[in-house]
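Work Package 3 (structural annotation) set out to generate three-dimensional models for the target panel prioritized at the project kickoff. During this period the team completed the workflow that converts sequence records into discrete structure tokens, so that structures can be stored uniformly alongside our sequence database. As a representative example, we reproduce one entry of 80 residues exactly as it appears in the project archive.
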Amino acid sequence: VPYAGVGLGFVRSSFNSSSTGFGPSSFSVSGSSTDLYFNVGGGIRHYVRERWGFKPEFMVFAGSNTYVRFAGGIFYQFGE
């Protein structure tokens, strides 16, 4: 069963790095950002049995940087 999706969201990232050395050569650096991203993609749900299967998925994220994600997973469908 093929599927497609779109989304809009925020990505929050932060870092902190420090180093100590001999004498006055120690330093500390940190930063953070929150960016708005738009994503679009899709995949295929392949049923192995009536309620479970696996799904490969391809997504493109566009924002301050653009990147792609290829992922796969196993699913189980509860209920009807």
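The mean pLDDT is 90.
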